Model the fold of this input.
Amino acid sequence: MGSLNAEPLLSLESIPEGALAEVEVRLGEDAESLILYRQASAVRAWLNVCPHAGRRLDWAPGQFLKSREGLLVCAAHGASFELDGGLCVAGPCRGDALRPVAVEVRDGQVWLSPSPL
Done:
């Protein structure tokens, strides 16, 4: 299976179980920030953009807020997102969702999938 990048995004072990990480990638001509979420040996990814105002969700590069309930919280306006699918369940963009990016784990490394969006 191919990948858009010649290199992996990062190693699976560099993301603790249940943690969030941020990576910069090229998607076509544009550089984009991605949020990665590890759940056991699987990784989910979304563009690091809040659907409410188009701002990054992290309060500092790679530093994300997570509620006691396990929701990803936008640092700018407090929108809260489920980590299973990126759905906004509270805040100014309730009912909207983060834009997913397809990634895959191979040989302990996280890669962009051939069709990342």
Notes: The mean pLDDT is 91. The beta strands are 10-11, 20-27, 30-39, 42-47, 65-66, 72-73, 80-81, 88-90, 103-106, 109-112.
